[in-house]
Amino acid sequence: MPYELEEIKEIRKKFGLTQNELANRAGVSQSLIAKIEAGRIDPTYSKTKKIFAALDDLGKKHELKVSEVMNDKIIFVSPYDNVKDAIAKLKKHAISQMPVIEEHMAIGLVSETGILDAMLTKKGHKVKDIMQDPPPIVNKNTTVTVISSLLRFYPMVLVSEEGRLKGLVTRSDLLGKVYKG
Length: 181
Fold this sequence. Notes:
By secondary structure, the protein is of the alpha+beta class. The chain contains 9 helices and 5 strands. The protein has helices at residues 8-14, 19-26, 30-38, 45-61, 83-93, 112-121, 127-130, 144-150, 171-178; strands at 97-102, 105-111, 137-139, 156-161, 164-170. It is elongated, with a radius of gyration of 23 Å. The two termini are 24 Å apart. The mean pLDDT is 90.
């Protein structure tokens, strides 16, 4: 991530580091960090690159994981449930989509949009007749940045640990938990 020299002090403090700790991580002297932060020196490209790399590493270590923002209550339907039952479940829980699960495996997705499309094309009356492809499944240690990218293309992302579903994240979950105002 590109930084400006003027941001080093602010970012360092955000991560709770002293000048000496940042200097050690970057392989430069503490006095160099102090002079840069005070605006008394224009460091060489190689020194700047080392400092920015150290800040990037810190940012990656402090990034939220999906396990910290996921909803661990998975509301789902079976492929053999009636579409009417799926609609009732969506309404009851005030959600717009849910996974279709069979034998602890996500095999599809039911959404309000998919149900409306199925009604227009007069597809079957069972969930298996109208379900869409399953959403992506990620490990619980996946970063929120990756989840944000996936949620641009999918309405939800399922979270697993050792092959077992542990939770899910929707756009609404992410907005509510990460971008609190």
